[in-house]
Amino acid sequence: MGLLLDGGIAVVVIIVALALGYILFYNGLISKRNRVQDAWAQIDVQLKRRYDLIPNLVETVKGYMKYEQGTLTKITALRASIMSGSVQDKAQANNQITQALKTIFAVAENYPNLKSSDTYKTLQDELENTENKISYVRTSYNDYVLDFNNAIQQFPGNVIAQRMGFTKADFFQAPEEERAAIKVDLTSDSAQPPMAPTTPKPPAPPKAPKTPPKPSKPQ
């Protein structure tokens, strides 16, 4: 009788431990998912701010950049897509807008009147500040996404996560040129140390004029 009682207690303890483990794991997944959603909300705030600043920038520069209407039209079209779609769609639109803005800022260097405009300088500072905030929050967001994805894909968490409806979160990818490794070609001529300057040779002394032939004696 005692053995049966002890065995029953052991089974109850095991069941309670499994239930507690399940609850703790589930709550952990909820916390990780909430961190991902909170970080994404911060990115979304900055994307919305960029969305609101773009029309003012286009209106300010379009009178100067008559030959850059294609870029202005493109950035206006991209503006609409940055507030809709999936995380990957928004990331792609954000990266394309970043490149378009770089083009506008580079071309603006050729217009002194535009560069000296207080409105333009304010918009440029605000857009660059917004881009910096997006880059900063993107790092935290991607860290949280990695932690969450690992938790729901590794065993035994993947079994529980699948049954509870947890799905993998998307990363907010950086532009390709930011992630590309810098390649250094050590075999190129540019990597070789500069040669020491050679000392110029002194000019050769002028040659003496040839002696004219002596006149022959008359016979």
Task: Kindly describe this structure.
This protein is mainly alpha-helical. The chain has a single domain (2-175), classed as LemA-like domain (de novo design (two linked rop proteins), Up-down Bundle), CATH 1.20.1440.20. Helices cover 67% and strands 0% of the residues. It contains seven helices and no strands. The longest helix is centred in the first third of the chain and has 60 residues, at 2-61. It is rod-shaped, with a radius of gyration of 36 Å. Residues 177-200 have low confidence and may be disordered.
Largest sheet: none
Q: Which class best fits the helix and strand makeup?
A: mainly alpha
Task: Tell me the radius of gyration.
Answer: 36 Å
What is the average of the pLDDT values? 79
How many domains comprise the coordinates? 1
**DSSP summary: helix tally:** 7
Q: Please trace the helix and strand order, writing H or E for each element.
A: HHHHHHH
Our estimate of the beta-strand percent is: under 5%
User: Going by CATH, what is the homologous superfamily?
Assistant: LemA-like domain
User: Rough shape?
Assistant: rod-shaped
Low-pLDDT residue spans: 177-200
User: What is the name of the CATH class?
Assistant: Mainly Alpha
The CATH architecture category equals Up-down Bundle
CATH-derived topology: de novo design (two linked rop proteins)
**Percent of residues in helices:** 55-70%
Distance between the termini: 161 Å
Number of DSSP-assigned strands? 0
In a few lines, what is going on in this structure?
With 219 residues, the protein is mostly helical.
